[in-house]
């Protein structure tokens, strides 16, 4: 379980971006972080994975605080798929890219190999194992970044716009991975601008950019026109259709 | 820690000066550095750093100057003053010897590099890469050549961002960048290799984009808003060019 308690943060010389933000992501739960551009969604991720240090509050995984720990130590609890992950692939082969995380944990070679094969199989990249990451298509690179995090088998996953620009087939693959991770009891936080994707996959929504960021169940969030206008997001298609029909 | 961009925005007269005038001034300093004696080299370096302070970029320039020149200057003084065998080596303490002529030569080499570094830092701190590119285009330089000159500065931000993104990705996948020098060196190697390969991949993409936009279709590019230029600055540039030619001739003929 991931808990964020009274998080406060401001960039140097700028007003507070977060003031007392709290949220809880239980095991087997997907939280969608939504809001307009510049609302602080990616900043929140960097506070969760330790790339930025909060001024107030703390982040807990499984009831234990990880605030103040090194990024590499937090990496043993929280996995991050960044926005534009294709910019952040660094290994010379797909296999090495996926093996990088498990190798940092000091796992034996046979376990690393098993994890790499499993992660690549789940992301439909097993036949690309020997290729250079930069030779893959955009969708394949995105899934390679996802495979790299899946191979680490962490209790918390952060996905920053993982669905962006994917066609139907790849989107369905992503949704099945999310469902499998949820069933496995992972706490998943995803930043998303695609409200149809949020409606289909998330359990709760943390809306940033409004007066008071708060965690709301998905049906309640999309039914609250005031909050939707406040955080500048549109209703997903089923909700608009329902509104049109009534 | 170094920022992603060396350019510091400002409104000083040096910021407002045409980039061609500043680059001519920079080249003049570089050529002059081969004629000045050691004490003058260090004095002029100090004056340039003071000009940086007056222009509001002093903190950034001095910090980078110290960071870049200190290791080199120390190495030059140790190598020429105490390691390289010379006829006037004097004992100092035990096995440690020094040479006065070696130290003088180190002062000359170190001072020259110091002056070139200080003036280059002042130039890049007060000149936006995009403005330099516009100035070169306005002066009707061939687009390929002007891009070649300005692109290292234009790409600096992008590569810094890419380096940070790769480092973030590696750290959030468990790579520790702290610890022993060996571990830090390993982390640096793991950062540099992908940075280089992605830069090579980018180069091809960038080249396609430029070609698709007809970058070199005409011998020169039209600039809608060229950087301000004045008759005095044009006169100054020509004067400095003549001065540089005279200095070069003096160095060759003396």
UniProtKB/TrEMBL annotation, chain A:
Superkingdom in the source lineage: Bacteria
Coiled coil, from the record: none
Occurrences of domain ABC transporter (ranges): 2-235
Keywords from the named record: ATP-binding, Cell membrane, Membrane, Nucleotide-binding, Translocase, Transport
Record-linked Pfam families: ABC_tran
SMART domains given in the database record: AAA
Broad class of where this protein is predominantly found: membrane
Translocase in keyword set: yes
CDD domains per the UniProt record, alphabetical: ABC_cobalt_CbiO_domain1
Topology relative to the membrane: Peripheral membrane protein
A GO molecular-function descriptor: ATP binding
Compartment(s): Cell membrane
Protein name, UniProt field: ABC transporter ATP-binding protein
UniProtKB/TrEMBL annotation, chain B:
Main location: membrane
Domain of life: Bacteria
Record key words, sorted: Cell membrane, Membrane, Transmembrane, Transmembrane helix
Membrane topology of this protein: Multi-pass membrane protein
Record-stated family: Belongs to the CbiQ family.
PANTHER family cross-referenced by the UniProt entry: SLL0384 PROTEIN
Protein name from the UniProt record: Energy-coupling factor transporter transmembrane protein EcfT
């Amino acid at each position: 379980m991931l808990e964020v308690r009274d998080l406060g943060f401001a960039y140097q010389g700028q007003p507070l971006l977060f003031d007392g933000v709290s949220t809880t992501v239980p095991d087997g739960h997907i939280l969608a972080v939504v809001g307009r551009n510049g609302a602080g969604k990616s900043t929140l991720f960097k506070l969760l994975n330790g790339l930025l240090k909060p001024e107030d509050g703390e982040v807990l995984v499984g009831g234990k605080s990880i605030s103040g720990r090194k990024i590499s130590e937090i990496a043993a609890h929280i996995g991050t798929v960044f926005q534009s992950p294709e910019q952040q692939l660094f290994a010379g082969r797909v296999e090495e890219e996926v093996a990088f995380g498990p190798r940092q944990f000091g796992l034996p070679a046979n376990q690393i190999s098993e994890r790499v094969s499993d992660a690549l199989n789940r992301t439909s990249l097993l036949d690309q194992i020997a290729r250079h990451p930069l030779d893959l298509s955009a969708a394949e690179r995105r899934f390679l970044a996802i495979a790299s995090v899946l191979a680490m088998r962490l209790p918390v996953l952060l996905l920053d716009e993982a669905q962006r620009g994917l066609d139907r087939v790849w989107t369905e693959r992503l949704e099945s991975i999310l469902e499998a991770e949820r069933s496995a009891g992972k706490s998943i936080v995803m930043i998303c601008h695609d409200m149809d994707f949020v409606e289909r996959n998330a359990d709760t929504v943390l809306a940033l950019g409004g007066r008071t960021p708060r965690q709301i169940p998905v049906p309640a969030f999309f039914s609250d026109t005031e909050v939707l206008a406040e955080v500048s997001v549109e209703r997903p298609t089923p909700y608009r259709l329902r509104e049109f029909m009534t | 820690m170094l920022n992603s961009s060396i350019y510091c925005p400002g409104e000083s007269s040096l910021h407002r000066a045409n980039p061609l005038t500043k680059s001519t001034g920079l080249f003049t300093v570089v050529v002059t550095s081969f004629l000045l004696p050691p004490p003058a080299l260090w004095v002029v370096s100090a004056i340039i750093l003071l000009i940086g302070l007056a222009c509001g970029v002093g903190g950034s320039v001095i910090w980078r100057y110290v960071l870049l020149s200190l290791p080199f200057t120390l190495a030059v003084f140790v190598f020429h003053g105490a390691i390289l065998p010379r006829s006037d080596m004097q004992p100092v303490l035990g096995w440690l010897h020094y040479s006065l002529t070696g130290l003088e030569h180190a002062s000359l080499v170190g001072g020259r590099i110091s002056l070139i570094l200080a003036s280059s830092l002042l130039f890049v701190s007060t000149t936006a890469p995009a403005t330099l590119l516009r100035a070169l285009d306005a002066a009707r330089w061939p687009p390929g050549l002007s891009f070649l000159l300005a692109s290292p500065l234009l790409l600096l931000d992008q590569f810094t961002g890419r380096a940070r993104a790769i480092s973030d990705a590696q750290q959030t996948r468990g790579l520790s960048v702290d610890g022993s020098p060996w571990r830090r060196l390993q982390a640096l190697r793991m950062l540099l290799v992908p940075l280089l390969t992605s830069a090579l991949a980018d180069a091809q993409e960038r080249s396609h984009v430029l070609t698709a936009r007809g970058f070199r279709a005409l011998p020169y590019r039209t600039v809608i808003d060229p950087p301000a230029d004045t008759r005095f600055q044009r006169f100054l540039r020509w004067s400095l060019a003549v001065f540089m030619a005279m200095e070069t001739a003096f160095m060759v003929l003396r």
